[in-house]
Amino acid sequence: MVKIGNVELEEFPILLAPMEDVSDPPFRAVCKENGADLMYTEFISAEGLIRDAAKSIQKLDIYDYERPIGIQIFGDKIESMREAAAIAEKAQPEIIDINYGCPVKKVACKGAGAGILLDLPKMQKMTAEIVKQVSLPVTVKTRLGWDENTIKIVEVAKRLQDVGIQALSIHGRTRKQMYKGEADWNPIAEVKNHPDIHIPIFGNGDIDSPEKALEYKNKYGVDGIMIGRAAIGYPWIFNEIKHYLKTGEKLPIPTITDRVEVTKKHLSFSVEWKGERKGLFEMRRHYTNYFRGTPNFKPYRTKLVELETYDEIINVLNQIEDEFTGVFTEV
Question: In the annotation, is 31 catalytic?
Answer without folding.
Answer: no
